[in-house]
Amino acid sequence: MKRDMKIAIVGAGLGGATAAACLQQAGFDARVYEQAVAFERIGGGIHVSANVLKVLRYIGAEQRLADLGIHPDAFTSRKWDTGEILFELPLGATGLAQYGASYLTAHRGDLHRSILERVEAGSISFGKRVERVAHSGGKAHLYLSDGGEIEADIVIGADGVNSKVREAIIGIRKPRFTGAIAHRGIFPAKLLNGLEVRNCTKWWGPKSHILIYYIEKSREEIYFVTSAKEEWTSSASWEYCTNAEVLRAFEGFHAEVREVIAAAPEVTKWPIFEVEPMDTWNSGPLVLLGDACHATTPYMASGAAMAIEDATVLARCLQATNDPISAIASYEATRMPRVKRVQEVSRENSFLRTPMDPNWVFGYDAAKVPLVAA
Ligand SMILES: Cc1cc2nc3c(=O)[nH]c(=O)nc-3n(C[C@H](O)[C@H](O)[C@H](O)COP(=O)(O)OP(=O)(O)OC[C@H]3O[C@@H](n4cnc5c(N)ncnc54)[C@H](O)[C@@H]3O)c2cc1C
To answer: How far apart are CA 275 and CA 232, in angstroms?
Structure first.
């Protein structure tokens, strides 16, 4: 690919920032347009599995995050009421030997910052909301809400579940509400008043589950995220809720779970959406990655992982050929089967519940996987 091509990335989330870092390290002129005026350390925890850590290694961010996040010794699955251990997947040194990288749980903001630090200074324009995207004569155009217009040779839509770039490719397709919401609480672990909690546990109930894990090396901050059936009619992307509401949804769960929920000074709830699988992720010089083309349930903790892998593979495909159209076709052919499988398994919500080999997820290396010829 000619390195003098202009690449515009819409969205500097986890996927867009990774795309910028990968493309820039390969010598491309890649610029990012982000609607937020700045990023803050908010959100919650995130699982940074071995497949993500290998991408962080590729862009030089692995050590930075390893200094902040925590390496759980195991991922433990427990039965919701009795606490019986259903499965324990060894991580730490065993995970490193098995999957080629370790496994971290971290603050989502710390993961984001570690990636953003690998993006060239000044190449992200904040406060730039893309309202409309079009292409003609091999050139792509972004129309911004401030009246600005950007021309580029390639536009990468990393603009999340309500993507404007997707709209330009397939028209309006509303993401599907799954009928479940996620409660999230993040707070200083000292509020647990000495309650002993394992590093990383998923408690499996009949219709709901809760993950509880530390997100800092020092174990100073703890996080929980649930999934529970609940309607969502609000147009907001999240809302506050009370501990009592979460405790009601987790009635009968093990005392440890209920104590953790009760200790959270603030809890929020988030609707869970999916973007149904699409036949194509591109149109001419426009191409999608991450939640924009395959937002998935968070039940495998793999949505961000898929966005980060997409970004890496797309950048490698663009490096591998001088023809952007065949590069994009190769990207789709390489990524679609994996993303489809992750979406399906995630929807089933069975991953790591009982003994299994997760190597097909964690063993993947987006920086090395063979690129499928289109
Ligand atoms: C409760 C919950 C828990 C989760 N836990 C995990 C986990 O543990 N591990 C994991 O891998 N995944 C997890 N996920 C999924 C993960 O958060 C997403 O898959 C991931 O954030 C997708 O990244 P992205 O870059 O594609 O999109 P986003 O992170 O949504 O980023 C999109 C970016 O584009 C910007 N943008 C949007 N529209 C425009 C526009 N018009 N113009 C300019 N900029 C725009 C946004 O401001 C944003 O910065 C979880 C999701 C949920 C809901």
So the answer is: 17
Strands, E, within the chain: which ranges? 6-10, 29-33, 45-48, 74-79, 85-90, 104-107, 124-125, 130-136, 139-144, 149-152, 154-157, 176-188, 200-204, 209-214, 221-229, 239-241, 267-274, 282-283, 286-288
Q: Whose CA is nearest to atom 35 of ligand 1?
A: 11
Q: What is the CA(304)–ligand 1 centre distance, in A?
A: 7
- Ligand 1 centroid, distance to 141 Cα (angstroms): 23
d(C-alpha 368, C-alpha 303), whole Å: 20
70, 105 Cβ separation under 8 angstroms: yes
Whether the full predicted model's pTM is greater than 0.90, yes or no, is yes
State both tokens at 112.
């984001």
How much is the pLDDT for 42?
Answer: 79
Average pLDDT over residues 154-174: 96
Find the residues whose C-beta lies inside 6 A of ligand 1: 10-16, 33-36, 46-47, 129-130, 158-160, 164, 182, 225, 270, 272, 290-292, 298, 301-305, 307
Q: DSSP code of 100?
A: S
Beta bridge partners, 10, equal 33, 157
